[in-house]
Amino acid sequence: MLDSLKIAHAVWRNHCKMPLAVVMLAMIANVGDARSPNVLIVLTDDQGWGDLGIHGNANLSTPHLDSIAKQGVSFQNFYVCQVCAPTRAEFLTGRYHPRTGVSGVSQGQERLNADEMTLADVFKAAGYATGAFGKWHNGTQSPLHPNDRGFDEYYGFTSGHWGHYFSPPLDHNGEIVRGEGFIVDDLTNHAIEFIKANRDQPFLCYVPLNTPHSPMMITDEFYGKFAQLQPTMRHRDPAREDLQMTRAALAMVENIDWNVGRLLATLESLSLAENTIVVYFSDNGPNSFRWNGGMKGKKGSIDEGGLRAPLFIRWPGKIQQGAEVEKIAGAIDLLPTLMEMATLSHDLPKPVDGRSLVPLLVNPKAPWNPRELFSIRRGSVSVRNQNFRLDGDSKLFDIRSDRGQHKDVSAKHPKVAAELKRLASQYQNAMEIEFAKNRDRPFTVGFRQSTMLPARDAVEHGNIARSVKSPNNSFFTNWKSKDDSITWDVMVVNEGDYEVIVRYTCAAGDEDVTVKLSRETQGNAAQYTSATVVEVFDPPLYDKSKERVQNSHYFVKDFQPLSLGILHLPEGDCTLRLTADEINGEEAIDVHSIQLIRQ
Fold it and tell me: HSE of 508 in the Cβ direction (CA atoms, 13 Å)?
């Protein structure tokens, strides 16, 4: 990771600050012409295979999502990863996620290495306008921000999840802005504006919506239908189903469907539908035990229920209409597929693990070489071939007759079991090497003028605690002692003087505390800058009245900036430590993030 970042930065710097994607792709660009198809990709978050009317769920109605399948091709055996960031990495690169630097969903594990080429890089180099609107979840600091990964326009959030869905703070091309209204409606509005603005040129519009991921917040307009619903279709083990969660998820999916309908209507109104490839899929299994076709597992599982996802692709007049593909496919296949559909160069700098699905889009019965798809979770590997799944416990299931994985058939098919076990071991060994390459990566500072280091990426020491268990949308609180501290391990790629801004809250009686940020190398503080908190800023938590489940653990509030002054940062690795002098009140400050602005 360190070498790749340094190389990427050196290349970027030596090309007069040209966009990194342009530098990386100069040798493979295949400039599109006026006939190049547009591409609209909708990716949903924690929506299971079963959360669709077309898949037989009578609990809800999804006419617009269903229409993409009816007007295009649907894949009956499409597989993603068990959690969010790995799926996004595989989709964006065509490579299994451990190869890309992504190993998890938080505290740096979600970061896509800087030397990986993304789908957006490829399309941008081919002359496309590129935009992303929603949950990124593959890196925050440049050169890992969406604007550094091929997207001209970005509006959304880069974290793994967001703690509030009504007019929250968001990221617009690296600047903090305030959202407007319900977040999915807002993201869709921006995607629609992007499509309208680029109607006269080829565009790639990526819309990674962030629902039905928790918090289970949804407007009354969509929740009303489900508030008292007794679902007619339940999880295969009804005792495990939380009906409040199910009701909220169904309402959120119907909101997704409405917003996708708005996107499709925009294409129609602009006469773009015939020349736009529309792709819809989700990133993992459902985030609760609810109806999912009787499959085993949910989000986080490497069984069928955690990995099987919908995939619908529509391109009127160019691919089959209403066809169903039975061949197994995965998120790793989407980059080579879309490149071939748009006739872009396949001369990529790194080998992809996926293959183009174009032959199956043209003819679902086309000849197709046998293959296996692999999933890894905490050292366990699950393997899917066309007929069988070897699960993480090395049990074999015949998916043709037992989608729910009820009966181990290893004894009946010993050769199949032995071969899949061999492949699983081979894959695990290879991926553990990849994981090891990307452990203990620091966060980059100075690639662009401003770098944000949120609480998510820090480590707390002493009494300090996160506001919630999950780091992704947390802040630090309970700062009780001058011995407490917060640290970020960073790699400075551009030496210079940096203004340090801390985003904080402070209750009355806790002011007049001096906060200091020190640069440490090998445990020794080399330099520091500090300022005294003189202004009380203690806003209430955001209203949670639209949260539809009890005991929600999401807590969000506003923070305000305080400049700590200028700190000189030499190039290289160091630790940044935030400390406070004597605590005058009950606590020091709550901390959302620090921002480093190169002068």
Answer: 1
CA distance 89 to 70: 28
pLDDT in tens, 367-413: 999 999 999 999 999 999 999 999 999 999 999 999 999 999 999 99
Report yes or no: 559 and 505 within 8 Å, Cβ to Cβ: yes
pLDDT at 16: 32
The three-class DSSP label of residue 532 is strand
**Sign (positive/negative) of CA torsion 177, 178, 179, 180?**
negative
CA dihedral for 338, 339, 340, 346, sign (positive or negative): negative
Q: How confident is the model at residue 19 (pLDDT cuts 50, 70, 90)?
A: very low
Q: What one-character-per-residue DSSP string does 114-183 give?
A: TT---HHHHHHHTT-EEEEEEE--S-SSTTSSGGGTT-SEEEEE-SS--S--BS-EEEETTEEEE--SBH
Domains within the chain, CATH numbers bracketed:
2-362 (3.40.720.10), 373-437 (3.30.1120), 443-598 (2.60.120.260)
pLDDT in tens, 443-456: 999 999 999 999 99
Distance CA 205, CA 150 (A): 12
Instruction: Report pLDDT for 346.
Output: 65
Q: Which residues contact 406 (CB under 8 A, 6 or more apart)?
A: 397
Tell me the backbone φ, ψ of residue 437, rounded to 5 degrees: -65, -25
Interatomic CA distance for residues 314 and 88, integer angstroms: 20
Extract the tokens encoding 574.
């160091």
Tokens of 303: 């069984």
In terms of residues, how long is the chain?
599
* Start-to-end C-alpha separation, the chain: 26
The phi, psi pair for 560, rounded to 5°, reads -125, 155
Which value, to the nearest 10 degrees, does the dihedral of the CA atoms of residues 253, 208, 345, 437 take?
-120
Measured between alpha carbons, how far is 209 from 222 in angstroms, rounded to an integer? Answer: 17
